[in-house]
């Protein structure tokens, strides 16, 4: 079993804490691990500097992730604690995800001091390392508002300072909610917002493709949504989308299979969104357009273009290669036919029928409403199966300083805090009209369940 001395060696060696801070915590915590960790958590970390703009208030000395891995390791759990807490000059603060390409962490870079997203990758052959380094250098040159900034890459070193087969990529941390989670929590998105996000992402892809690269794993989880939440009363232009995770990116010249090669093919991508040609280890820039089309389909309907029970890979491959391109209007009839046709074009089986990111960008831009959505605007499209909105309020009800608004505002605010996630609530002072706030509450599944229970009880008591 590890000792406190062993733990001190790891934490100090990884620069998670200083020796002086550790010794003070041990003295205050009287040698008990939980008390020591409480003391370390209560004080700001050593890397925190009040002059740093990205940390306006003191962060905890130990994050929840750091405490969890420390307690698990100290209790005899398997794993390398030092590797779970730091890689090179990066302190790992929170695990954001893990996939076939590696792990992703929210991290603190010590020099220069900034928050970054760190993704780890294994490159165990010399040719693989050379390709990775070439691609990484090129990706660092790409700058676009819809593409997460690629800061640096470096080889991970072990405790003795020797290079390993593991590399890390440090990228811009994007604060928002990923499209996959947004749809899971809130259901299908109003189509004008999806059109706006398509413009953002196509602009980013146009720059990536111009530099000769292919993302290869575009999916809802790799799209971050920023700005206002896509609710009633919000304008599509007040939101934006940004493309993340370039761990699978490849140069177009390296993405076609080598003629006569007998090596084992390794599928890279996500089954729900990978285009037909990608299943044969052949990708081109149009492959990203197919995956983006499928991701937009998911945003509009709440499900990927093809749903396969058990996520069987062979069944997915056949669906992408042979099944008809799905019609988004069959699941969401409020989507305009022009948008449906664009999605079908993007998901064409023949990659050369999908057009280019620049061409599609102009077509999507023409669909975006330029004004704030109202009850009569096409931007105000109801979600499928959503409750019928209440009648439009009179001007006196909508006025923030009216007696009706003042009476209902605290009640609605309390209900919104309970039932609506923070990222979906409008900022203070920018709340929409009363009926829109009530409609937003009525779209929450838990609210509908509670209303159904009360209605059932009322009917039961009435007929007793």
Give the class from helix and strand content and strand pairing: alpha+beta
Tally of separate helices: 16
Radius of gyration: 26 Å
Helix content: 25-40%
Uncertain runs: 257-263, 372-401
Strand content: 5-15%
What is the H-and-E element order? HHHHHEEEEHEEEHHEEEEHHHHHHHH
Largest sheet: 6 strands, antiparallel
The overall pLDDT average reads 82
Morphology: globular
Spatial sequence of strands, sheet with the most strands: 1-2-3-4-6-5
In whole angstroms, how far apart are the ends? Answer: 65 Å
Care to count the β-strands?
11
Could you characterize the architecture of this molecule?
This protein has 464 residues and is of the alpha+beta class. The chain is 39% helix and 14% strand. The chain is built from 16 helices and 11 strands. The strands form 3 sheets. A 6-stranded antiparallel sheet has the order 1-2-3-4-6-5. A 3-stranded antiparallel sheet has the order 7-9-10. Strands 8-11 form a two-stranded antiparallel sheet. Strand 5 and strand 6 (163-172) form a beta hairpin. The longest helix is centred in the middle third of the chain and has 20 residues, at 191-210. The termini are far apart. 33% of the residues are buried.
Features of the shown structure:
464 residues, alpha+beta, 6-stranded antiparallel β-sheet, 11 strands, globular
Can you summarize this structure?
This protein is α+β, with helices and mostly antiparallel strands and 464 residues long.
């Amino acid at each position: 079993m590890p000792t406190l001395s062993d733990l001190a060696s790891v934490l100090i060696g990884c620069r998670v804490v200083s020796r002086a801070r550790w010794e003070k915590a041990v003295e205050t915590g009287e040698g008990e691990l939980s008390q020591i960790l409480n003391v370390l958590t209560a004080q700001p970390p050593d890397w925190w500097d009040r002059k740093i703009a990205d940390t306006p208030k003191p962060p905890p000395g130990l994050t929840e992730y750091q405490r969890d891995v420390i307690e698990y390791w100290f209790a005899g759990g398997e794993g390398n604690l030092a590797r779970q807490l730091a890689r090179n000059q990066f302190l790992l603060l929170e695990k954001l995800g893990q996939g076939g390409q590696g792990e992703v962490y929210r991290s603190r870079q010590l020099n220069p001091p900034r928050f970054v997203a760190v993704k780890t990758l294994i490159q165990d052959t010399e040719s693989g390392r050379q390709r990775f380094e070439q691609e990484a250098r090129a990706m660092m040159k790409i700058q676009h508002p819809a593409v997460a900034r690629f800061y640096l890459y470096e080889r991970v070193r072990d405790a003795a300072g020797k290079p390993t087969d593991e590399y890390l990529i440090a990228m811009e941390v994007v604060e928002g909610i990923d499209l996959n989670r947004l749809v899971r929590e809130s259901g299908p998105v109003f189509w004008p917002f999806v059109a706006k996000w398509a413009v953002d992402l196509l602009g980013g892809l146009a720059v990536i493709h111009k530099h000769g690269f292919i993302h290869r794993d575009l999916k809802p989880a790799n799209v971050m949504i920023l700005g206002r939440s896509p609710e009633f009363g919000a304008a599509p232009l007040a939101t934006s989308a940004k493309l993340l995770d370039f761990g699978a990116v490849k140069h177009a010249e390296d993405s076609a299979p080598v003629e006569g090669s007998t090596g084992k093919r390794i599928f890279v991508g996500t089954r729900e969104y990978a285009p037909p040609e990608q299943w044969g280890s052949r990708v081109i820039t149009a492959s990203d357009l197919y995956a983006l089309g499928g991701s937009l389909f998911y945003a509009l309907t709440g499900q990927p273009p093809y749903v396969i029970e058990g996520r069987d890979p062979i069944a997915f491959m056949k669906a992408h290669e042979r099944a008809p391109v799905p019609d988004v209007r069959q699941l969401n009839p409020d989507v305009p036919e022009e948008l449906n046709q664009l999605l079908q074009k993007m998901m064409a089986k023949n990659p050369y029928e999908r057009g280019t990111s620049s061409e599609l960008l102009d077509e999507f831009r023409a669909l975006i409403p330029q004004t704030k959505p109202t009850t009569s605007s096409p931007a105000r499209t109801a979600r499928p199966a959503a409750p019928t909105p209440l009648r439009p309020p009179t001007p006196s009800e909508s006025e923030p300083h009216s007696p009706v608004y003042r009476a209902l505002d605290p009640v609605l605010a309390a209900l919104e805090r309970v039932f609506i996630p923070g990222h979906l609530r409008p900022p203070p002072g920018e709340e929409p009209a009363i009926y829109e706030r009530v409609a937003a509450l009525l779209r929450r599944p838990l609210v509908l369940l509670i209303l159904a229970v009360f209605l059932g009880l009322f009917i039961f008591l009435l007929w007793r």
